[in-house]
Amino acid sequence: MKNVVEIPKTQVMMTFVATCIETTARLLNTSYKEVYERMKRVGLIERFILPHYETLHSESRENLAQVLVECMNNWEGRK
């Protein structure tokens, strides 16, 4: 039997965050850097994506990107 390599959960979660950013950028037809800056500005990664990782990672990428765009727009409107 081959050795199984376990990836730390924090690394898996950071990979998921990167996927969220890239998928959202594709949906918005913009750069991942711009999406990251927008998410960072409103705290979307720390206050929404990471705390809700278990629920969000079960969504399709398309649904996830739509939810993140809606959330990001709402949170930006509050500032």
Describe this structure in words.
This protein is mainly alpha-helical. The protein is 75% helix and 0% strand. It has 5 helices and no strands. The chain has helices at residues 9-28, 32-42, 44-49, 53-56, 61-78. The chain starts with 8 loop residues before the first helix and ends with a helix. The model has no long low-confidence stretch (mean pLDDT 94).
**First-to-last CA distance:** 55 Å
Compute the number of helices.
Answer: 5
Shape: elongated
Largest sheet: none
CA gyration radius, whole angstroms: 14 Å
Q: Total number of β-strand segments?
A: 0
Mean pLDDT: 94
User: What portion of residues is helical?
Assistant: over 70%
Order of helices and strands: HHHHH
Structural class, judged by helices and strands?
mainly alpha
- Low-confidence runs: none
**DSSP strand (E) fraction?**
under 5%
What's a concise summary of this model?
The protein is mainly α. The protein has five helices and no strands.
List the helices and strands and how they pair.
Layout lengths: L8 H20 L3 H11 L1 H6 L3 H4 L4 H18 L1
List keywords for this structure.
mainly alpha; single chain; elongated; 79 residues
